Amino acid sequence: MTVYKLLLLPGDGIGPEVMAEVERVVAWVNARGEARIETETDLVGGCAYDAHGEAISDETMGRALAADAVMLGAVGGPKWDGVAYEQRPEAGLLRLRKDLELFANLRPAICYPALADASSLKRDRVDGLDIMIVRELTGGVYFGEPKEIKDLGGGQKRAVDTQVYQTYEIERIAAVAFELARLRRNQVHSSEKRNVMKTGVLWNEVVTRLHKERYSDVTLHHILADNCAMQLVRWPKQFDVIVTDNLFGDMLSDEASMLTGSLGMLPSASLGAADASGRRRALYEPVHGSAPDIAGKGVANPIATIASFAMALRYSFDQGETADLVERAIAFVLDEGYRTADIAQDGCRTIGTTEMGKAIISALDRMAK
Ligand code: IPM
Ligand code: MG
Fold first, then answer.
1. Fold (CATH) for 104-264
2. With a 6 A CB cut-off, is 93 part of the ligand 1 pocket?
3. What distance in angstroms lies between residue 324's CA and the mean position of ligand 1's atoms?
4. Which residues of the chain have pLDDT under 50?
C-alpha cells in the first residue's frame, strides 16, 4: 500500500477548528484502506511566533519539504498586530509558498446549487457556476525587490513595492492554465493591466506566444484586470479558467468566492513544478483567513478546508475517485439542509464546525456503500 506523508499546519484563529474536521476525513480515507496517509502536526503563523519568535521555524520548513503534501488552516490575527513586519504571521505562509516554489495557485469557485441563494448575486447569475482561478503565487509585487520604506527626513517617508515578472514565470503559470482548460471547457482568460504596467505588456506577449506555439486549440481571451473584476459580478458564467498575477489573483479570488455564497466554501491548491516522476510539491489551504472574531466558538465552516483536502487527494495522493466522493458528500449535506452560520438560510439547520464535519463523514459512509 502506498504511504503518503501529510504535514498539517492548523495555524491561528479558526485554523485548528477546521483542521480537526480534516483529520476526521483523513481517518475515514485511511479506514477505506486504499492508501495510507500519515499525518504530522506543526506550527505556523502567530502560534509559531509565540513558540519560537518566528512565523515558521527551519525545522518546520524541513518537515514541509520532506512531506508529500502540506495542509494549512489559516494564519494571523489582531494579537500579532504589533509584531515586526519580518516576523508577522503571514510571513510563515509566504515562506512556505516561496521555499517550496509553489508557483501555481488553483482557486476553484464552484456554486453548489443548494447555496445559490446565499450568493450576493441573483440565482440565475451563479447557479452552476464553475470557475478556476489560476493565480501566480511566487512572484510579482509580493516578492519583488526593492521592498522597503525609506525615511526621507522632514516627516516624509517613501515606500516601494516592486512588481516584477520574468518570461519563464509567466510561461509556466500560463501552461498550467491552458492544461487545466483542456480538461474543462477549453477557455482561458488572461488578466493583466497592459494599458498601465510593463509587467502587463510582457504578460500579454508571453501568454499570446505560448498559446500560438503550444495551445492554439484552447480559446484565449485577454482581459484587463479591472474589467475582469467587473465582468465577474456582471456575468460570471462567461469564465472558465482565469490566469493572472499574484496580486490581481489575490483580489479576483476573494471576489469570486462571494459569488459562491461564502468565503467559507473556497478551497485552494498551490502546486510546484512536476519532477521526473510527475510528483509536485503541494500545499492545500482554504481561501478564507483566520477569522479571529469567531475563533474558538465552534461555528466556523470547515467545508473549504475539507474541500482543500479533496484537492490533495486528487493532486497529491492519486485518489481522484475518493476526492470526487468527498466533494459529492459536501454537496449532499448541503442538499440535506445542513448549514454553518456563514451560509445560514431559512428552512435549513444551522450547525457548528464539528457537527458539519460529522455530517460529511456520515454522508461519506452512506455514499461509499
Ligand atoms: C491569500 C491571503 C494571503 C495572500 C495573505 C494571508 C498573505 O490573502 O492567500 O489570498 O495575500 O496571499
Ligand atoms: Mg487573499
1. Isopropylmalate Dehydrogenase (3.40.718)
2. yes
3. 27
4. none
